[in-house]
Amino acid sequence: MRAVGIILAGGNNHRMKELSQKRAICAMPIAGSYRSIDFTLSNMTNSHIQKVAVFTQYNARSLNEHLNSSKWWDFGRKQGGLYVFTPVVTADNSNWYRGTADAIYQNLDFLKKSHEPYVVIASGDGVYKLDYNKVLEYHIEKKADITVVCRDMEASQNVERFGTVRMNEEHRIEEFEEKPLQAKTQTISCGIYVMRRRQLIEMIEKCAEEDRYDLVRDVLVRYKDVKRIFGYKIKDYWRNIASVEDYFNTNMEFLKPEVRDYFFKQYPDVYSKVDDLPPAKYNVGANIKNSLISSGCIVNGTVENSVVFKKSYIGNNCVIKNSIILNDVYIGDNTYIENCIVESRDTIKANSRFVGEGEIKIVVERNERYVI
Amino acid sequence: MIKKEMIAMLLAGGQGSRLGVLTSKVAKPAVAFGGKYRIIDFPLSNCINSGVDTVGVLTQYQPLRLNTHIGIGIPWDLDRNIGGVTVLPPYEKSSNSEWYTGTANAIYQNLEYMESFNPDYVLILSGDHIYKMDYEQMLDFHKENGSEVTIAVMPVPMEEASRFGIMITDENKRITEFEEKPEHPRSNLASMGIYIFNWKTLKEALIAKAEQPALDFGKHVIPYCHENGAPLFAYEFTGYWKDVGTLSSYWEANMELIDIVPEFNLYEEYWKIYTKSEIQPPQYFSGDSVVERSIIGEGTDIYGEVYNSVIGCGVTIGKGTVVRDSIIMNQTRIGDNCELNKAIIAENVEIGKNVKLGVGEEAENETAPHIYNQGIVTVGEKSVIPDGVSVGKNTVISGITKAADYENCYLASGKTLIKEGEE
After folding, report:
1. pLDDT grade for A371, boundaries at 50, 70 and 90
2. Is the pLDDT confidence value at B423 over 50?
3. Of A257, A264, A282, which has the smallest distance from its Cβ to B291's Cβ?
4. At A338, is the pLDDT very low, low, confident or very high (cuts 50, 70, 90)?
5. How far is A235 from chain B (nearest CA, A)?
6. Whole-model pTM?
7. What CATH number does the domain located at A3-264 have?
8. Which DSSP state fits A95?
9. Which of A77, A217, A337, B238 is the most buried (most CB within 10 A)?
10. Mapping DSSP to helix (H, G, I), strand (E, B) and coil, where does residue A368 land?
């Protein structure tokens, strides 16, 4: 592949509520056995991008732990590799990343030392499959300066947390609005960009000179009339998980056979870190309907319309309905949980009751756990 | 200079013919176990957990699956700059090329491999047991006693002792005598086939007995060491250890995993068992599914009912199908409205709709009653079973079978249906 990859994984936002206290959005667990960034990382490796930089800043412990080895995505190569860049203090800079463009600027040497002619920039909070080579081909064919991957959202979807774009008939982007109060179109930017490496370096350096720090606001929106910015429309499954509602719904969509089939059975595969957990175990009293259960779980109770992540324990007579149980949760006997997201490593006492009324409740229970 | 205190040699070349069609295309150590593992994962994980990071795996019989599984040892952290895992098949030599003719002969043919690590001790393991054992503790025992050969033993019930190699020890655990499968055992300490040798003792014995046909540890090498006055000690192991050499013991060992707190617990944080995981997604249960007392691997879709069973990864169990007391290995697909009782289904098997396995009268297997017994239905890997057939007990099916192979859609108990040469 003639491109290096950059994954913007620093972010956090208030739409994730308590869930973002523990980790960056990119490290959010998805579909039982994965984390959000796995999808972008797998897309990169499946597109034969060999060198990938991940920029991370907000509470990166989970993410760093997940990226502890590049071998899971086959990046541990002599040519290329996986580079994780967190902000560091240097002789001439002691700032945090003040924005996405600043993150790239502070690590500009990575881009300058690369030899690949193109760069693929993607955010780490999307759940999708995409061959970036196709975007690159389109980029070259259109003689574009920047290509933005776009998608038409359903009319029912609120797009105010996305960047919206309007394209002319040859797909050149004429309008680009970031998080509009009143969206004029349902076409949004998926946060995936392709451009020439030299071009990116030039723009980022210019930005820095002008004390501008944001890739979207200060590069894409600002340059839209000067540079040839094109939209590449995708129609396949794509979800952004950066709000509690979307996070919940995206996970629940994996209960649909067509979604599982698309991600898990069709080529190419999605890769994740291997945890070496034993198979899931179902004791007497287990009763599971329309649910996903991950390895390492021990189930003694009822689970309905739910997604249970790795290594969770569900006690006797428990009822879990329409909920997401994140990794390594212990649920004591006789507990009732409905319409909830149970935060990872929670320990829930026996006889508890948690019900989300009208909206999804986030359960954070830090009780002592005694391991036998 | 390269120096390893102890290296392991893992004997993985045997066919394990008592596992019947399960080992017709793969070596026994590569047979699936416990939903997502293969038998060889247990000794390999024991090695890395014990700090033994140099393992030579001796292969001979049908090594393809084993080779792909082991690769460069990544799942066990055995991809090392120095040492790590090395697969050692028999090879051609300028003078006498030969297969591995016995356990010790296989080790003898790889003297050079062992020599290259300049070891003090060599650990000999076999790839067909399910257990968790700290070889480092065994080595400590070996050193403390000034032993030259230490044999891991475990106490077995006296009435079963005549099936094993039995060690007779003095009060200091020093071995005074040993008997191979004695009719009237004088001790109940059975050899587990795990040995630690001082490298010098092993090398000398192997060279001295090199001309012995079918050179074997139990029959030739250990007696030789004993006769030459080397101190032999028995290291007693009391944890879980299971020989899964027969279909019925293989079936039992799998079933023991589904107890509430199994004697052999895979869920302990300490002493993890590692394996190569190719399939990662979670498992799905449909609205009609029922599952009880079972363990199930990644990526499996269950639309039917599963009781008391061990199900591997990437398996599909159709709607209305009822699976009881069975073992189903990776990537097997079972259609709708089937009924499986006490069946062992190997990998990549296709079972059609309305198939019934393990029904009818008990009857002894016609071809190999010592292999296929206990009422178990055994289906070899990549087999196909057509829609609507019923199959009795103590039966075996292998290959792509068609409706015409079943008389009146029925394979009676005790029958063997093996179709050769059709892939």
Report:
1. low
2. no
3. A282
4. very high
5. 24
6. 0.92
7. 3.90.550.10
8. P
9. A337
10. coil
